[in-house]
Amino acid sequence: MKISVIGAGLGGLSTAAILAAQGHTVDLFEQNENPGGKMQEISAEGFRFDTGPSLLTMPFLAEQVFEMCGKSVSDYVEWMPVEPVCRYQFPDGAVFNNYLDPLRNRSELMRIAPEDVEAWDRFLEYSADLYRRTAETFLFNPLQGVRDLHLRDIPDFLRIDAFTTVSRRVDDYFSSKRLRQLFKRFPTYNGSSPYKAPATLNVIPYVELRLGGYYIKGGMYNLARALVRLAEDCGVRVHTGVPVDMIVPDPGHRRKISGLMINGSLYEADAVVANSDATDTYLNLMPERTLSRYKRARIARIEPSCSGFVVLLGINRVYPQLEHHNIFFSEDYEEEFRTIFELREPPQDPTVYITNTSVTDPDDAPPECSNLFMLVNAPYTAPGQLWHEWQETYTDHIIHTMEARGLEGLRDAILYRKVITPPDFERLYGSNRGSIYGTSSNNRNAAFVRPRNKSPWFDNLYLCGGSTHPGGGIPLVLQSAMNVGALVDRDSR
């Protein structure tokens, strides 16, 4: 078949490679000059920054993508474990180094939360159990139809703790305020609030704290480079700087797409894969008459994940209190999420995540310097927000906040500074209202009703990426690509 893929994010690149390896003729169209979607990098004044995902988990899924294409991932890209996985700094000044090594980690727990040392192990057993119950029935299953449901798996799927919130279940296990805050941060990995998201998302700690977190050697963007090379090695024609104007329905077949409109001309295709945001795909890339008003309204009501406010700083000093991954927690975590998701305003007392890759890769900064990627969870775009006015003042506020939290002299150490706001994510990547993780999971069902990897309304339209099933983040995006590959293969038989 002749297949067109919209978007060269990790999902689009992986899908294109898999489909080409199956023998299809594949063209991939990316509106930006650089492939990778939200996984990008910036090099300036001797500093290198990853501007998207900063941690690789479940690397076996990356291995599977390459294996499906008849290649070995080790010929394209390498990764390495990061220890400690993260350094947590709490409002009371306590510091916790979270190690994968159980003995070192237990020693840290004895120091900052001795009352919850055993609770840590019990919680991760509970998290592992959630993983076992959701892996084959949900995470690694396209869930496209009845044939994807197995009766033997239903009892497990009904026991995935979806009827309470992440926050309540964490509080059931821990008495330490510090560990409660630590484990409530994991729903932010898919842009959700721990006070609204179902406790099923407590599966995430198992993925990071038991399966491990990794860094791509030479920078996270090397994964995007590797996938571009893989796609081209499989025969994909990658077209960058080529925006798609429209997905064109077939006028003679109600359930069929005839191709893409590009630069005013129809580019015919037997099938189309959209790696664009699913909401944007249905509402903005298709003619309005294509879907009923009811369907369009239902799609428009999908709540996006939170966005992010990113500050990149190249500084002329090294802070010994910074590891590769760092979290500086806010004083009132619940109020922070209320501000983001209910008031839809940037929090004034934000939790700040800092990646300092020069700790691991000294080439990312000049000698005696550091490259700081600072991320604050921010609301998705909404009427009344004034990001063009807030940008500079909020950046200064974050820098001042970090100086108060121990990075003394940060402002005076800055050699390079760049800011990325929620409207930037919306403009650059077409993400729904600037969301950076696709769809939120802020209710009991949201995680399980994401847009499927094949459109229910068109027989030859497929979807991949973080806004689709099974979710956001590198590993689940790669899984969405494998889902599309399986569905196209199934449909073409």
Structure, explained:
This protein has a domain at 2-39 and 64-80 and 218-303 and 440-491: 3-Layer(bba) Sandwich (FAD/NAD(P)-binding domain). It is α/β, with parallel strands linked by helices. The model has no long low-confidence stretch (mean pLDDT 95). 34% of the residues lie in helices and 19% in strands. The strands form 5 sheets. A 7-stranded mixed β-sheet has the order 8-7-16-17-18-15-19. Helix 1 runs parallel beside helix 15 (474-491), helix 2 (59-68) packs parallel to helix 15 (474-491) and helix 4 packs across helix 8 (203-209). It has helices at 10-21, 59-68, 102-112, 117-139, 154-157, 166-173, 177-184, 203-209, 221-233, 278-284, 293-300, 333-343, 387-404, 422-429, 474-491; strands at 2-6, 25-30, 41-44, 47-50, 56-57, 79-81, 86-89, 95-98, 213-216, 237-240, 246-249, 257-262, 265-268, 271-274, 307-315, 325-328, 352-355, 370-378, 414-420, 461-463. The chain is built from 15 helices and 20 strands.
**DSSP helical segment count:** 15
Main sheet? 7 strands, mixed
Number of strands: 20
CATH-level-4 superfamily name of the domain at 2-39 and 64-80 and 218-303 and 440-491 = FAD/NAD(P)-binding domain
CATH overall fold name of the domain at 2-39 and 64-80 and 218-303 and 440-491: FAD/NAD(P)-binding domain
How far do the termini sit from each other?
12 Å
Report the β-strand fraction as a percent range: 15-25%
